Structure to design on (266 residues):
DNA sequence: CAATACTTTTGAACGATTCTAAAATAAAAA
DNA sequence: TTTTTATTTTAGAATCGTTCAAAAGTATTG
């Protein structure tokens, strides 16, 4: 188990300038870790924490973090877009009633029988969503 | 192999009034079958076939058909929402470059190790999307 | 055919997200 | 430091896919 990184270290190693906004958002995401987060939820959490940040910056930051591999973007249905602070390979339960997601560690689920890919194609990732009601 | 149903029969058995618009859309979807269809694509196909129908009706109809189990709605990412004319249980390749989907029959892929569900919960369906680039 | 129920249409409204370009801030250079 | 340059943030407008509202049209029932 590696020691947890500070927001500053996280931004440094992702090659992103440690601005006030990014540091605050990184802290909310990776220190006070909440797993499955929407842009709106993070924006409101920032506001209620007294962190002054615009919604556009929340979106920018979530997208930058995703591009740098610090977050994983999960789209479950047309009105549920989450950012997942767990970037390890894993799967999800989706509770249709509440809109909640719950992790399934990748090592408990086994898949086999994946058909051959077309020439030159490579698997980027495999998403399994078990929809539960 | 059952004989293919006519648009009229499809609408009848789904308990939907056979209007001109629904008959045309059903024909495009289930007779001149195109598998993975967006609302916009269907709207334009209708127009170029000389079928006069509004975009709102295309959306209404796709949603009604989905609710009646004639279509399956697949959301792959924030800007790719498809309706699948194959409602049998199956999975998908998603080609990130082109945005195309390709079916994987459910019987070729095997999963096991699904964790126990919380009390009272039941699995609605399992979606596997293999993202390929 | 008249009455009722449902469907379609247009255009406005919506919510989530992205864009724009001006103001602010960070980093690098002097 | 101070200045310069590069990057980031911001507010608000714009965009996109989709849904809504209410009036007009069409199917079904009696």
């Amino acid at each position: 188990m590696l020691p947890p990184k500070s927001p500053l270290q996280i931004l440094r190693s992702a090659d992103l300038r440690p601005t006030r906004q990014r540091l605050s958002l990184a802290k909310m995401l990776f220190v006070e870790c909440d797993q499955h987060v929407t842009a709106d939820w993070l924006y409101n959490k920032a506001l209620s924490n007294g962190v002054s940040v615009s919604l556009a910056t929340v979106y920018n930051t979530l997208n930058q973090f995703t591009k740098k591999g610090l977050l994983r973007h999960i789209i479950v249905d047309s009105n549920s877009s989450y950012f997942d602070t767990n970037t390890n390979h894993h799967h999800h339960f989706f509770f249709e009633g509440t809109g909640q997601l719950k992790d399934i560690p990748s090592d408990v689920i086994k898949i086999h029988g994946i058909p051959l890919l077309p020439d030159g194609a490579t698997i980027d990732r495999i998403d399994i969503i078990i929809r539960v009601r």
In short: The CA atoms of residues 97 and 133 of chain B lie 6 Å apart. The two ends of chain B are 35 Å apart (CA to CA). The first helix of chain B runs from residue 7 to 13. Residues 17, 19, 21-22, 53-57, 60, 78 of chain B lie near DNA strand C (CB under 10 Å from a C1').
